[in-house]
């Protein structure tokens, strides 16, 4: 409450400087709010000089103070307070305000040379050019202004590097991040900078450089586990699956060992670089993965690479994690690597089938069927929204008590795919009748939706789901037709293969099975004609047909492989014998 006086202001501003530093040191959240105390301190300075600035904003207030207050005794304490103000603005990503403030600070020191600063980055050059005021022996500081200047330089380079990285200006981002890596910071921040350098190099198409930076991050601070996750991503890009899986395994093991809180490896400072760098892109790049996410990635990559035994082990381990309340531990906002839970069950069933554990696959699929039964409507019309049932799946898209069209189609696809997997599993067990029953249930489910209805076609959002349903329908028709052949029900098999070709004209598996069905029905001339047509198709057509549309969900890939016609050579020989020597060369 005492009036401001010039002799007391240096001590008053120094106390303010120290108290703000202690406030930040006591609570990280303090840096997120504009410090009113700085504004009050500047107003006290103006009061002592016989002027006022109550109506001015903080930036205008700084401009007025630094331009009008020329008292030599106040310059050092004002400059230190200005650097602290810059820290608050930097934490709020107000780079223009920071640059303007240092322009004013430099003008106060050297009016003639303030605008002559040039360098690779104007803001960093301005901060570096700022001459730190000398510290008075009688006025101890909680943190030196020289240290604060170095922290500001590092944070400015880091923050701008992240902004350029987010904007896709990778060479500029790389340069700024390298500048930050040479600055003053803790090992934790240095590891984060190297991680960002690695991600930047990866975006630039330089995977080896990316690996060097990411490995450096782990050498500096191994608890920087996001770097290990990005190492696995780079190895995947390089096609080095063994190294990728090793990195993911190491990451999973490291996540399982919760480290005790280690003391800071750097000097104990109240204002630190990590407090000043707040960026969504940094949060995204450094997002810590839940162990279950890494376990799922291990399972997925093993399945994709054909390492079936390992895939089964990882998938079963993952399913056991569901008992630990996985839904509460992993975000469902799209940032997680996890798919929807029914898809994980279906992928598990696919892995079990490929491992020859068909009965286990059937059991897993039964779980999907039971959990989705209440979610699939009796009749689906694209123009209707569906009432939300009492039971719903985690992450289901529900608005106003209604289940969206897209979510309904997904539930339908999951249940139909479960029946499809059960059908193929029963077929592998030699139970053709049971296989036909399950595949018929799959087809019956798919009749609930008007796949060619105008209401579904009108929205692009539903197209991925419609394509998946069409592929499931194709695979179930081929599978049921094949089992009809095993049961000697050749006419029914022929109908299924004909329907398959209506869904996917030219599909090589359906066309080959159609030839076999015609042959078994003793319609050999038609079979031979279809076979010749199939042989005359260009080699690229089949691959093009299989690759149309979007990539298949992983849980359908094994079904697609099982649908491949297995008797091509014997059937070809039989037809060639029927046609005679002229047919030995199909191209003749």
From TrEMBL:
Q: Which Pfam families match?
A: BTAD
Ranges for domain Bacterial transcriptional activator: 423-535
Q: Does the keyword Signal apply?
A: no
SUPFAM superfamilies per UniProt? TPR-like
Q: Which UniProt keywords apply?
A: TPR repeat
Where the TPR repeats fall, as residue ranges, is 474-507
Give the stretches traversing the membrane.
none
- InterPro entries assigned to the protein according to its UniProt record, in alphabetical order: BTAD, FANCG, TPR-like_helical_dom_sf, TPR_rpt
Q: So which domain of life are we looking at?
A: Eukaryota
Q: Which GO terms describe its cellular component?
A: Fanconi anaemia nuclear complex
Report the PROSITE patterns cross-referenced here: TPR (PS50005)
User: Any idea what this protein is called?
Assistant: FANCG protein
Q: Its gene?
A: Fancg
